[in-house]
Design a protein that fits this description.
Layout lengths: L4 H28 L1 H7 L3 H24 L6 H11 L1 H21 L1
Helix pairs in contact: 1-2, 1-5, 3-4, 4-5
Amino acid sequence: MPYSARERLCLWTVAILGFAGLNGVFLWALGTRPDAAFAVMRDPVAAAFIVEALVMVAVLAYLFARWKVTSVHWMWFVLLSLAGGLAFAVPVVLLWTDRQRQRSARV
């Protein structure tokens, strides 16, 4: 499915906010207050959210490949999710596929 310029802008905005904003806060906290970051791992509620996020990465990787939403290999989606979170990986993978489709349409 091709995305409009406005949709692409929104997807890029989410990707940048996900990587620089959400992931940036995590990396900042890990660097400046590692004790607090590791204390989260002992919290059962936080652990449940972490496990849920990892399960959703696996589910989305499977569904994107199954539904052929993207031509990007599922492993790239998993790696992007681990590197920058779902708010980063989902828009990047969708935009990556849209860009490949635009290139093939020009040829």
